[in-house]
Design goal:
Blueprint: E1 14-17, E2 20-23, H1 40-57, E3 65-72, H2 78-88, E4 95-100, E5 109-116
Parallel strand pairs: 3-4
Antiparallel strand pairs: 1-2, 2-5, 3-5
Length: 121
């Protein structure tokens, strides 16, 4: 069952500058901004689903991702994040950085992504 809704940040879901697309941090919430809860993997999958949703809203696809930076509230979730990462990117993968960080509760993972909308070189 989803928790009470959280307040969305006062920022746009994405910003485009030329062919560069930057998404605001994505967390594991449902369409009503309720934290998904469940396991770390459930939350990470929901955060990636929100990345895909915002990419689509901006007219982009996941294969246009250049880089994903993941912020983990607990670095013990590293292995779980790797499992979800491999599910999300079974083929060509974007560059990645993973950082241990203090996140706004109740979130355990936040994704910061950059995509390229121009022609592939």
């Amino acid at each position: 069952m989803s928790a009470d809704p959280v307040t969305p940040p006062p920022a746009p879901a994405f910003r485009r500058q030329g062919d560069l697309l930057l998404l605001s941090g994505q967390v594991g919430v449902d369409e009503n901004w309720r934290p998904v809860g469940g396991s770390f993997a459930d939350e990470a999958r929901a955060a990636f689903a929100n990345v895909r949703r915002v990419l689509a809203e901006a007219g982009a696809q996941p294969d246009q991702l250049l880089k994903v930076t993941a912020y983990l509230a607990d670095l013990e979730d590293w292995a779980g994040y790797n499992e979800v990462w491999l599910e999300e990117f079974p083929g060509r993968r974007p560059a990645r950085t993973t950082i241990g960080a203090r996140l706004v509760p109740p979130f355990r993972v936040e994704l910061d992504v950059v995509a390229w909308l121009g022609a592939t070189p």
